[in-house]
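Hey, resending since the last one bounced:
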Amino acid sequence: MMSIQILFFSISGNTRAFVKKLSEYATTKHEEDASKPLVTFKEITDDSLFEEMLEPFFAFVPTYLDGGNGAENGTNEIMTNTLSEFIEFKDNRQKCLGVVGSGNKNFNWQYCLTAKQYAERFDVPMVDDFELRGTPTDVERVYENLVKYVV
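The structure tokens again:
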């Protein structure tokens, strides 16, 4: 059975909460239809030991930026650097299927900017996005979009 593997980084807890809801939703879908993939996840923290990923995965990344405005004078990614370093470790980059971003829509066009930067840096699609902890509709939509890449 295929599964959807997720690596994520979360400081505020929003991304962690969303991934847990996504996993619960996937379990419900799998119980209704055994062909639907489950979700497994691994939180990457500053204390994580890097390992080579054996299976393809999606990266879920919140947006934390410092400096600049993202357009004329750029921005600096902060706090999520450990996740990008994990993806760059050994052959992990080749196993990254795509990126899902989260952020706050109050930041207008900088919404999910870190995820967009990851997608460009790792040459993978930005599969989807959600605001803050997401809604039940976001959970359903993100799950269905991830399924397209694994089945």
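The longest strand covers residues 96-103.

Sorry for the duplicate.
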